[in-house]
């Protein structure tokens, strides 16, 4: 037995983005929830904390690649024809982008920067720290979901779209191709994409990165249940769910799950829904795909780009790929 809906006509809350996703996910078999549900205010704070954990190598490894090769990346994307304009998908607070913005300023004196994100508060924080710390950046934020389309970006020279942080890994491969196609639609021949993507590696490195000793990733995962409690009235008992991180070798992805430690029924009043869990049953909350140079090249090329350069760290744990239209 899995989930039972007690009504035929859906209540109003099931038509909101959060309500409809929770309804869809918890009435599916196996149960799933989309990772975008993680990012309420608390979830975004927990994610920032994850990026500083000793086990979560991704952020600091990508940052080190930018620190070492940022000037080369900017030089490879620029052209004689005019200044480079930078556009960032899912920019958040744009903390790592500073290294690339500084490299662009070193090369051309100033830079136009268009960060795009669903979170207006994250963009406000990005604007503030860039205005205070990086003179020479002309910033125009755009609040929106880049997966749903990107408005054209005016530009005199070449455009460089940044899609960093391995966010591409949170999409199914076919959807990842679609996201990059969306980015390509706003680019002209000679413009570039700079993509940061985590590499496949030993499970002994990957598992702790998604199941850290301090339990921050567990709190991040469980926070989705707190969100469903707050926004839809669900009576989840957090102590009866446990965070699980699994390495799926065949699919080359880390999976995050929430496992029910007991057989139980959770009610979600706003959705008129009772959700039954067997002991040991899980809600699959996230995939984080890990790529080989070949598998990421295939996604980039299926999206209509030509891969031109790539950079990595000495351990080959993370890749940054430059591709052109
Ligand atoms: C945002 N994204 C790239 C993170 C990742 O590594 O897949 C999300 C995350 N989930 C658990 N820890 C971090």
Automatic annotation (TrEMBL):
It comes from the Bacteria. Keywords: Methyltransferase, Transferase. Its EC number is 2.1.1.44. GO terms for biological process: methylation. InterPro entries: EgtD, EgtD_Methyltrsf_superfamily, MeTrfase_dom, MeTrfase_EgtD-like, SAM-dependent_MTases_sf. One of its GO terms (molecular function) is L-histidine N(alpha)-methyltransferase activity. Residues 20-324 form the Histidine-specific methyltransferase SAM-dependent domain. Signal peptide: none annotated. PANTHER family: ERGOTHIONEINE BIOSYNTHESIS PROTEIN 1. This is L-histidine N(Alpha)-methyltransferase. It comes from Silvibacterium dinghuense.
